[in-house]
Design brief:
Blueprint lengths: L1 H16 L6 H16 L17 H23 L5 H14 E3 L5 H8 L4 E8 L2 E8 L12 H18 L16
Parallel strand pairs: 1-2
Antiparallel strand pairs: 2-3
């Protein structure tokens, strides 16, 4: 029963992504756009055979989560060789426990940032196409220094001199560059 259920879910997603286009370039763009839409949680059922998916909000959430995890797993497979099923299961379990794989528009994304989640993963659409975000929480050290007021006034005066005299393009300016003796 579980295998049959998973097969039904995969056919639903295939129908959601299905493209009736003959152009290969347009086909790839539409595929990414529809995948991004499903990643965001917008699952549009296009066939009457798939209306059973809309019967439960939990089911829609599981579908969105599985699509997100599949993209995260695909990204991980680029850096590791995941041929063993046990290794894939371990990696998915680790993702589920330690990482948040969410759409940036999801309210849980902000909650994860506020809660200092160690790793966030998302898919972002921009002008150039699509970008995978893999954000890791790190601690950065900063060194604060204190400058005395005279040093600040001296730097400011030097910048004012450059703005007033050296930045002037008039040949009659009072800059030292135009003095014939120099």
């Amino acid at each position: 029963p579980l295998v049959a259920f998973l097969f039904l879910l995969s056919t639903v997603l295939r129908r959601c992504i299905n493209i009736d286009s003959s152009s290969a370039a347009l086909h790839g763009t539409l595929l990414l756009q529809r995948y991004f839409r499903i990643f965001q949680g917008d699952i549009r059922v296009t066939s009457e055979k798939d209306l059973w998916v809309l019967s439960s909000l939990d089911l829609l959430e599981y579908i969105s989560k599985s699509v997100r995890m599949s993209l995260r797993l695909h990204n991980e497979q680029m850096s590791e060789d995941l041929d063993d099923c046990d290794l894939v299961f371990e990696v998915l379990t680790e993702f589920n426990e330690k990482e948040q794989v969410l759409a940036e528009s999801d309210p849980k994304w902000r909650e994860a940032i506020v809660n200092n989640t160690p790793c966030l993963f998302s898919l972002r659409k921009n002008e150039d196409g699509f970008t995978l975000l893999n954000l890791k929480l790190k601690t950065l050290e900063f060194r604060c220094i204190k400058l005395n007021p005279e040093a600040i006034r001296g730097m400011w005066a030097g910048q004012q001199h450059e703005l007033l005299f050296l930045g002037n393009q008039n040949s009659e300016r009072g800059s030292i560059q135009n003095m014939s003796a120099v």
